[in-house]
Amino acid sequence: MNNSRTVEKNLPVFGKWNAIKELGDGATSRVYLASNENHSEKVAIKVFYLSDLSRRWLSVAMDNEARVLRGIKHPNIIEIKDHYTLLKSSGSDRRSSDVGVIVLEYAQRGELFDLLQKLTYFPLELAQTYFKQIIGALQYLHKREIVHRDIKAENILLDKDFNLKIADFGYASRDEGNIFTTPIGTSIYFAPEIHEGKPYSAKQADLFAAAMILFLMVVGHMPFCQADKKDQIYNMRRQGEFEEFWNFHTKLSIQYGNRSEFPESFKNLIWEMFDPNSDQRPSIISILNHEFLKGKELDSAEIALLLKTFMCDKY
């Protein structure tokens, strides 16, 4: 067992990693920016607070996330650096608490969601590039029978070169042809079969959520509140009302001051990926070969230049 010790401003040390500042927190964990002892590398440290009531299930969730990440090496998936099952940590109140820690690659540009909040929508070339990165990462995971189960804009980060990194594997699991029944993840990104309480493919659910992110990147707002029978907008898709669906979103985009025209190839891909029948949705190979994704994939320098130009044009 490693012990953590308190440093300046009561920020803890975890093994060789010194916390620098807090990046954010949630219901079960807190994330710090940290550096190693000689300050040559910066990382993100995800800290799980293991109270007596939560110790068992939080430990299982943390160990599951670490185990999944240890077997992964992909340019668009966050990299694990280290993992501590149990440490003693002292907070500002000087009380000692038990924590578990996952040390991760630091994605210094933050969340894709925050960049979307700032820009509202992306240039088409950037949306195409980012979607290829997301689908490529999912293809890598699914080939290894791993499903993420919480794909959303908040769980996709950007590194210093503005490349995407899928993160937060707390809900990830093995999928060896399994049919899942328990709803897991974020409900607004759920595929319709999950809302209906049907057994579902988690791989298909990952792709449905990815389609929602693509829509958000291109159009600038969510496609519907959620893909259930109570949602009037998703019901346009259920009933095959292609023109009505896209006319609605065109008018909404104009109202918001966003892009008002969308390529037919984009509309067709989204329409296919939002099919209420999961068996009719395109495979990963079909998605990657779709007309909408046949454009050039931007490199890091081109992404940075495009974002700079786009920001100047907008503001």
Characterise this structure.
The protein has 2 domains: 98 residues, Phosphorylase Kinase, domain 1, CATH 3.30.200; 205 residues, Transferase(Phosphotransferase) domain 1 (Transferase(Phosphotransferase), domain 1), CATH 1.10.510. It is 37% helix and 19% strand. The chain is built from 10 helices and 11 strands. The strands form 3 sheets. Strands 1-2-3-4-6-5 form a 6-stranded antiparallel beta sheet, covered by helices on one side. A hairpin with a 2-residue loop joins strand 1 and strand 2. Helix 3 packs antiparallel against helix 5.
Brief account:
The chain is an alpha+beta fold and 315 residues long.
Q: What characteristics describe this protein?
A:
315 residues; alpha+beta; Transferase(Phosphotransferase), domain 1; 19% strand; globular; disordered N terminus
Proportion of residues in β-strands? 15-25%
CATH homology-level superfamily of the largest domain: Transferase(Phosphotransferase) domain 1
Stated plainly, the CATH topology of the largest domain is called Transferase(Phosphotransferase), domain 1
Question: How far is the first residue's CA from the last residue's CA?
Answer: 52 Å
Strand sequence of the main sheet, in spatial order? 1-2-3-4-6-5
Shape: globular
Main beta sheet strand tally, sense and closure = 6 strands, antiparallel
Alpha plus pi helix count: 10
